[in-house]
Design a protein that fits this description.
mainly alpha, globular
Length: about 400
């Protein structure tokens, strides 16, 4: 077969198998389609099906096909991260800055500390730190991976639970948005390369000037032109950030963060996000699964994933409980908010993909983090739904 034919065969696998598992297995309650796609990627990867049927893996996912899939996956994620940047409502965050900053700090800071402690335990064993990873980068990277909240998946879950447009849903979005900014700031710090610090400072200074000019241009354009110019801006920012050594994904987030959501029709932006998630993000999810590895031993990877899951879940819940006590939230709110902010799949996976690309973590650490992200995301709706019903019943009874 030609490379094109094998590539299309890979695409057929990518879109067919997860969909059938999701639809026939009716997994939506605990595992939405995106989570099933990630799990399928792990199963189809070199560590499981590739180890059982190496000939299949070498034929379908040969280097040429992997290269094609990686290119599509990179562009898909860049668009997705840019949209997340566009949707940040900084004016709302500023309006509720005391409540928002305190909650975001505790909901991010506590699991960050717990995750750093888990990383310190992992450092006592070989096989977890990448060849170019320094100790502080590894510890901070693992800690932030435990603290991350996936804003796009959070929105999807809150829509399913019918609380997105309710006051509690809007509050959670503000907390998650502030955490989102912190995530990319920490990533930029981890990726800071002192041998190229001149380039990186130059990039940031040039970005400030370019963003000012870009905003002036966008304000004067009609909306139909803004959609096209947005992608030109995305490619330029991604290229410049990667050239500076910060990674193209940092540029993608910055490209969206300097845009105002009001420049675009909200329904069309929602459609763009959904279409990207439907049409090209599955390639990223499967590509992610192909990077998994169990070389240090399957049990070791699962034990590490369990340690990280405990650090992540307990840290998030402790942080929101502290915020709830300080801000005097209603009974049950802290637990609901803590579990919803626990949603990790997607943004966390993008984050650890970057750490892996930069050789800060190994494939084994990546696999453990991926398993943790999948598990924490699958726990969210089953844990939140009954708590939400009880809280709503209490509110109705009080009325």
């Amino acid at each position: 077969m030609s490379t094109t034919e094998i590539f299309l065969l890979a695409m057929l696998i990518i879109f067919t198998i997860p969909y059938l598992i999701w639809r026939v297995g009716k997994t939506e309650y605990f595992a939405p389609l995106v989570v099933v796609q990630i799990i399928t990627g792990i199963l189809l990867g070199p560590g499981i099906l590739g180890a059982i049927f190496p000939t299949y893996y070498q034929f379908v996912f040969n280097p040429n096909v992997i290269q094609l899939l990686t290119g599509i996956a990179s562009w898909a994620v860049m668009i997705f991260v840019m949209i997340a940047g566009v949707e940040l409502d900084l004016s709302k965050a500023w309006e509720y800055r005391r409540e928002g900053s305190l909650t975001a700090a505790l909901a991010l800071g506590t699991p960050l500390l717990f995750g750093c402690a888990a990383a310190a335990v992992m450092l006592t064993y070989d096989g977890w730190v990448g060849p170019k990873g320094m100790t502080w980068q590894f510890i901070l990277g693992i800690g932030m991976a435990c603290a991350v909240t996936a804003l796009p998946i959070l929105i999807l879950f809150m829509e399913k639970l019918d609380i997105l447009r309710q006051p509690i849903g809007q509050r959670i979005l503000r907390y998650a948005s502030l955490d989102d900014i912190a995530i990319w700031g920490v990533l930029a710090l981890i990726l800071l390369d002192w041998t190229r610090v001149g380039r990186q400072v130059g990039f940031l200074l040039a970005f400030i000037v370019a963003a000012y000019v870009f905003r002036k241009i966008m304000i004067r354009l009609q909306e139909r032109d803004r959609w096209y110019v947005m992608f030109i801006w995305l490619a330029a920012c991604g290229f410049a950030a990667d050239w500076a050594g910060l990674h193209f994904m940092v540029g993608a987030f910055l490209s969206g963060a300097v845009m105002d959501a009001k420049w675009f029709n909200q329904e069309k932006m929602d459609l763009l996000r959904n279409h990207v998630l439907l049409g090209i993000m599955p390639v990223f999810f499967l590509s992610t699964g192909l990077k998994t590895n169990w070389a240090v031993g399957g049990w070791a990877v699962f034990i590490a994933a369990g340690l990280l899951l405990v650090a992540s879940v307990s840290g998030k819940l402790v942080g929101t409980q502290l915020a709830g006590k300080i801000l005097q939230w209603e009974k049950g709110e802290a637990s609901i908010i803590g579990w919803l902010l626990q949603t990790k799949a997607l943004i966390m996976i993008i984050f650890v993909n970057i750490l892996l690309d930069k050789n800060i973590i190994t494939n084994e650490t990546f696999t453990a983090l991926l398993l943790m992200a999948v598990a924490s995301t699958m726990l969210t709706v089953p844990m939140v739904a009954p708590k939400l019903q009880r809280m709503q019943a209490l509110i109705s009874k009080a009325k």
